[in-house]
Structure formats: structure tokens, C-alpha cells
């Protein structure tokens, strides 16, 4: 452990699996206390069970909460619990929560379009708004938000109009936040993963993956930990002059 974020308090959404779980693991390894949240409480409790702890008394410095990021009151309830336990808001906020409801535009239902926007884009917006406010009110210094976008935010993707729109929105909400919150010393960046081995990409048909792999310079799909390492760097003071960036983590994928 290098202690990249030692002593920091981190809040990670979508922490029950995939990139969110890996992010919790890397941040904990690097010395952070982690609040892991997800819509699936069992999964996020399992995530907490995998985290390293540096408490001398043997207790865990980490916490798990049931949170629906598309619901403002759910997020505020989690923040209240954090303030009660840790007496401060997190200085690291990572928005990993995301869903897909894939279909071609002519077959894509209004409900499926709205569900994806509500979690991926609205959820990111709400977490940013609520936690940035708490950070400002508590005069937390050196805060960093890392939002998870996607390579498809740049290029679009067949059958993913809702997902692509949501992730493109995340990129621009992040850039807008930079303009509004830099005066408070808060940084915002976006990570754009390519094909990463997660429960979400496990749903991609094998025939599609067979076409995708040759487009990736590294000739393989990525691992969640490879994205999490970038997130941890952006969350740390080592990236203090990186603000408003959208960083590809895609193995050299050419779409």
C-alpha cells in the first residue's frame, strides 16, 4: 500500500460489483475509509467484506448503505448517516452507478430510456449536487469527484441510444461542474472505460464481443481494477492539476 489517499473518506456508488467494487478495494488499499453504496444491499455488504482495514482495534472503518441514486431523499439519507458516523462529508466521491436497457431506437421503450437516464445521468447529477453542497458547507479541502462515463459517450453505439446519451451527459455535467465549483477547490473528472469485464458487459452477446476484441489494440477486454487504479489517481492529490478531463481507459479501442 502506497497510501495514495491515506486518511481520506470516500463515497462510491454502484459499489456492489464491477468497477464500483474494484474502486472500493483500491481506495481502501490506498488508505481511504470507504462508504460503499448500491441498490443491492447484499452485494455492497459483500464488497465491504473484501476491503482492507487499517484499524488498530480490528473494527472496520468502512460502511455500506442501500442507496438509489435516482432518488434525492435516498442520497440525502446516506449523507446524513455519513455525517453522524464520520463527522464530515467525504472528500472523494466516485459515481459508478449505472445500468443498461439496450434496444434499437425503433424498439426502445420510453420507460427503458427514462430508467437509464434517471440512474446514469440524473443519479450522477444528484450525487454531485448533494455532496458538493456538503463539502462546501463543511469547508472540506482538496475534494475530488470522479464520474464514470463511457467510450460510447464519444462515438455512440447501436442499440444504446439511452446509454450513450446518459454517458455523454455525464461528461458535460462534469465539465460544467468544473466551471461552477473550482472556486471552492473541488475538482471533477470523468473516466471513459471501454469494454471492461463486469456484470454489465457479461450481458453482451458473444457474437458482438467477437467483433469488438479485434478493435482493441491490447487485444482483450479490460479488468475493473485497471479502471479503479485510474480513479484512485484522479481522487488523489497526485492529480491536483487535472480538472475537467475525460480520460479514456479502453486498451486503445478504435470504434
From TrEMBL:
Keywords: Fatty acid biosynthesis, Fatty acid metabolism, Lipid biosynthesis, Lipid metabolism, Mitochondrion, NAD, Oxidoreductase, Phosphoprotein. The lineage of its organism: Eukaryota, Metazoa, Ecdysozoa, Arthropoda, Hexapoda. Heterotetramer with CBR4; contains two molecules of HSD17B8 and CBR4. Pathway: Lipid metabolism; Steroid biosynthesis; estrogen biosynthesis. InterPro entries: NAD(P)-bd_dom_sf, SDR_fam. GO terms for cellular component: mitochondrial matrix. It comes from the Eukaryota. GO terms for molecular function: estradiol 17-beta-dehydrogenase [NAD(P)+] activity; testosterone dehydrogenase (NAD+) activity. The keyword Mitochondrion applies. It is found in: Mitochondrion matrix. Belongs to the short-chain dehydrogenases/reductases (SDR) family. Its main location: mitochondrion. GO terms for biological process: estrogen metabolic process; fatty acid biosynthetic process. This is (3R)-3-hydroxyacyl-CoA dehydrogenase. It holds the Pfam family adh_short_C2. PANTHER family: DEHYDROGENASES, SHORT CHAIN, ESTRADIOL 17-BETA-DEHYDROGENASE 8-RELATED. It catalyses: a (3R)-3-hydroxyacyl-CoA + NAD(+) = a 3-oxoacyl-CoA + NADH + H(+); 17beta-estradiol + NAD(+) = estrone + NADH + H(+); 17beta-hydroxy-5alpha-androstan-3-one + NAD(+) = 5alpha-androstan-3,17-dione + NADH + H(+); testosterone + NAD(+) = androst-4-ene-3,17-dione + NADH + H(+). Its EC number is 1.1.1.239, 1.1.1.n12. The keyword Membrane does not apply.
Amino acid at each position: 500500500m502506497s497510501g495514495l489517499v491515506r486518511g481520506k473518506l470516500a463515497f462510491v456508488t454502484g459499489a456492489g460489483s464491477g468497477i464500483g467494487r474494484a474502486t472500493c478495494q483500491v481506495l481502501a488499499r490506498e488508505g481511504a475509509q470507504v462508504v460503499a453504496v448500491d441498490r443491492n444491499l447484499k452485494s455492497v455488504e459483500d464488497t465491504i467484506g473484501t476491503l482492507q482495514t487499517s484499524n488498530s482495534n480490528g473494527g472496520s472503518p468502512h460502511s455500506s448503505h442501500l442507496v438509489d441514486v435516482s432518488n434525492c431523499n435516498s442520497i440525502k439519507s446516506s449523507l446524513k448517516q455519513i455525517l453522524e458516523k464520520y463527522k464530515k462529508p467525504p472528500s472523494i466521491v466516485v459515481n459508478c452507478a449505472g445500468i443498461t436497457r439496450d434496444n434499437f431506437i425503433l424498439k426502445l421503450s420510453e420507460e427503458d430510456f427514462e430508467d437509464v437516464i434517471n440512474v446514469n445521468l440524473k443519479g450522477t447529477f444528484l450525487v454531485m449536487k448533494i455532496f458538493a453542497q456538503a463539502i462546501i458547507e463543511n469547508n472540506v479541502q482538496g475534494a475530488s469527484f470522479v464520474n464514470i462515463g463511457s467510450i460510447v459517450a464519444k462515438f455512440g453505439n447501436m442499440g444504446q441510444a439511452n446509454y450513450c446519451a446518459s454517458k455523454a451527459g455525464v461528461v458535460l455535467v462534469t465539465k460544467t461542474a468544473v466551471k461552477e465549483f473550482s472556486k471552492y477547490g473541488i475538482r471533477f473528472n470523468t473516466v471513459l472505460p471501454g469494454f471492461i469485464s463486469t456484470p454489465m458487459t457479461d450481458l453482451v452477446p458473444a457474437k458482438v464481443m467477437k467483433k469488438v476484441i479485434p478493435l482493441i489494440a491490447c487485444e482483450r477486454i479490460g479488468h475493473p481494477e485497471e479502471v479503479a487504479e485510474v480513479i484512485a489517481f484522479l481522487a488523489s492529490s497526485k492529480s491536483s492539476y487535472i480538472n475537467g478531463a475525460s480520460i479514456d481507459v479502453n486498451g486503445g479501442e478504435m470504434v
